[in-house]
Amino acid sequence: MTNALIADDEPLLRERLASLLKNLWPELLVTQARNGREAVELFDQNEPQVAFLDVHMPGMNGIEVARCIGGRAQVVFVTAFDQYAVEAFRQGAIDYLVKPIEEQRLAETVQRLRGRLQAPAHAPQPEWETTLERMALQLRDKLAPRPWLKWIKASVGATVRLIPVEQVIYVKSDNKYTMVVWEGGEALIRKTIRELADELDPERFAQVHRSAIVCLDRVSHFTHGPGDSGELHLKDRSDKVTVSRSYLHLFQQM
Q1: What is the DSSP string of 98-145?
Q2: Which 8-state DSSP code applies to residue 148?
Q3: Sorting pLDDT into bands at 50, 70 and 90, what band is 88?
Q4: Smallest Cα–Cα separation from 138: which of 63, 73, 57?
Q5: 2 - beta bridge partners?
Q6: Of 39, 43, 50, 129, whose CB has the highest number of CB atoms within 10 Å?
Q7: Minimum mean pLDDT among 74-83, 107-116, 170-179: which range?
Q8: Domain residue spans in the chain?
Q9: CA–CA separation, 148 and 171 (whole Å)
Q10: Angle CA(134)–CA(138)–CA(144) in degrees, nearest 5?
């Protein structure tokens, strides 16, 4: 029996990963930790062979947990950052997963983990301290507190207007344009959805589709749609925002 530890301070994402692992690796015994300190305690108690660690946790983050674990387990990092951090992970960690986790991508990770666990005991392992120190330096700026976007520059007719982010209801895009829907109407913006996802406060805004971001305060309820999709209904508005399969886990308990 192989034991695994999942450490993530977001319950829905933690449960999502555990559920996917159950399907892909049925004999895996999974323990869940709500934060970094609990992860270290549970690791010492259960001595799992595999650890899935969220990089950005309050208190003790995933990199600090990995330092405590050392080379005693195969570590997979989970991150919301898909740019600078990803390149750092490639330098030595066994693997990384970008949120929201896709089943096909996780299947590749599981295959890689099984190969590592079946390898001879004398097989070379990553130089954990050097690797993790390098990752910590590269991620320092990404994980530090950052000022979130407060104003969005948008075109309204022939006028360029500054829209307060607190008035934004949702943002959507098609092949040519990105449009912000706010309390004062609709306007075209130059930023892409990808750029906005990095600049908007994740406590208030969530990407729910590759072409849509919604303000969570403006959501009244969620309904399941046909197949693997859903819809967000907005307060005091008739329009709806589509939720794609990759983001359904964010609203499963609504």
Answers
A1: ESSPPHHHHHHHHHHHHHHHHS-TTS----HHHHHHHHHHHHHHHHS-
A2: P
A3: very low
A4: 63
A5: 28
A6: 39
A7: 74-83
A8: 2-143, 151-251
A9: 16
A10: 125
pLDDT for residue 203 is more than 80: yes
146 CB-contact burial (10 Å; exposed 0-12 / middle 13-18 / buried 19+): exposed
| Cα 107 to Cα 196: distance, rounded to the nearest angstrom | 29
| 8 A C-beta contact, residue 231 and residue 243 | yes
Asked whether residue 83 carries a pLDDT value surpassing 70, the answer given is: no
Cα dihedral across residues 40, 46, 51, 54: positive or negative: negative
**What span, in angstroms and rounded, lies between the C-alpha atoms of 167 and 183?**
6
Instruction: Supply the mean pLDDT for the chain.
Output: 83
What count of residues does the chain have?
A: 254
**CATH 2.160.20.10 applies to domain 151-251:** no
pLDDT in tens, 127-176: 544 555 555 555 555 555 568 899 999 887 788 889 999 999 999 998 77
Work out the widest C-alpha separation in the chain, in whole angstroms.
68
Put the strands of the sheet holding 185-189 in their side by side order. Answer: 159-164, 151-156, 185-189, 178-182, 168-173, 212-215, 205-209
On the 0-12 / 13-18 / 19+ scale of CB atoms within 10 A, 144 is exposed
Q: How far apart are CA 28 and CA 113, in angstroms?
A: 12
Contacts of 231 (CB under 8 A, 6+ apart): 222, 223, 225, 240, 241, 242, 243
What CATH code is assigned to 2-143? 3.40.50.2300
